[in-house]
Amino acid sequence: MTSVIFSLEMSRNEIAMRLLSAESGVPLTNMRAGTLSEPQWLDIAKHMGRVNNAPLFIDDSANMSMMEIRAKCRRLKQRHDLKLIVVDYLQLMSSGKRVESRQQEVSEFSRSMKLLAKELEVPVIAISQLNRASEARADKRPMLSDLRESGAIEQDADVVILIHREDAYDKEVRPGEADLIVAKQRNGPTDHVSVSFLGHYSRFADMARI
């Protein structure tokens, strides 16, 4: 499935390393430090071709505007039949023009992505930061109102999935687990799913069935 990631936070190399860690099962810390055993080198070599040959485009251009993203996606749709767009992350985008407020600017990005998805008939995954409101609550689970800098994100999105890890606040509580909270689903129910968080491999996985 031809996909594109517009990464405004991490470099192309950082993303590629995370993908390789997730696919090979070699811890990211070992890859960064270069402290790899022979079996780990073999695992990396075995999966390197799969990662390199994946129909995935990674664009790590700095200060990317919505206009640039739209133009690049249109070209990819025409030339490679683009099937998925990922933007990481929304609050790092720049319009390159003066606006009344940052909230208004992020709202414009959100609406533009909604229109882009409709135009190209391609799902758009827009990663968003959360504000710190949940940290002041007894229940730390994030809510729709915690989406940072714009209520338009909540309004425009067809689906909103929030990630919550209790061990981020208390390492003794549900270590290695995460909740994927389906806080909004335009055409279906809301719920949550518990998964395993494999941070050393930069991935989530289904919970082991006992």
Automatic annotation (TrEMBL):
<dbReference type="GO" id="GO:0006260">
    <property type="term" value="P:DNA replication"/>
</dbReference>
<dbReference type="GO" id="GO:0003678">
    <property type="term" value="F:DNA helicase activity"/>
</dbReference>
<dbReference type="GO" id="GO:0005524">
    <property type="term" value="F:ATP binding"/>
</dbReference>
<dbReference type="InterPro" id="IPR027417">
    <property type="entry name" value="P-loop_NTPase"/>
</dbReference>
<dbReference type="Pfam" id="PF03796">
    <property type="entry name" value="DnaB_C"/>
</dbReference>
<dbReference type="GO" id="GO:0005829">
    <property type="term" value="C:cytosol"/>
</dbReference>
<feature type="domain" description="SF4 helicase">
    <location>
        <begin position="1"/>
        <end position="210"/>
    </location>
</feature>
<protein>
    <submittedName>
        <fullName>Unannotated protein</fullName>
    </submittedName>
</protein>
<dbReference type="InterPro" id="IPR007694">
    <property type="entry name" value="DNA_helicase_DnaB-like_C"/>
</dbReference>
